Amino acid sequence: MSTLPPCPACGSEFTYEDGLMLVCPECAHEWSPGEATETAEETRVVRDANGNPLADGDTVIVVKDLKIKGSSSVVKVGTKVRNIRIVDGDHDIDCRIDGIGAMKLKSEFVKKDAG
């Protein structure tokens, strides 16, 4: 069983040592084993459509009508979404919208609620 950490760029578990460096065979990312892999996650800041940083528990407002894939429903402009969670991935906001249910949103389609 390998005790090497997963790739910080793509999360692959198939990393290997090459001299003093660790290498990911899937994305070709190279890094030093002394580097803290958590620093990439700590420095990642999710920002809304206006450039404001978002955090877990924030309330956001949808700035564009969003069609829901596989449904005829639409999330309308101005819909307020409370208590968001920031997650990794393309859709970086995990939330629950009243009347629709749990879904994931892209941060570029929301703005932080001022009040």
What does this structure look like?
- The radius of gyration is 18 Å and the shape is elongated.
- The protein folds into 2 domains: 1-39, N-terminal domain of TfIIb (Single Sheet); 59-112, SH3 Domains (SH3 type barrels, Roll), CATH 2.30.30.40.
- It has one helix spanning 38-43; strands at 16-18, 21-23, 30-31, 60-62, 66-67, 74-75, 80-81, 85-86, 93-97, 101-105, 110-112.
- With 115 residues, it is mostly beta strands.
- The strands form 4 sheets. It has a 3-stranded antiparallel β-sheet, with no helix packed on it. A 3-stranded antiparallel β-sheet has the order 7-4-11, with no helix packed on it. A 3-stranded antiparallel β-sheet has the order 8-9-10, with no helix packed on it.
Key words describing this protein structure:
single chain, 115 residues, mainly beta, N-terminal domain of TfIIb, SH3 type barrels, 2 domains, three-stranded antiparallel sheet, 11 strands, 28% strand, YjdM, YjdM_C
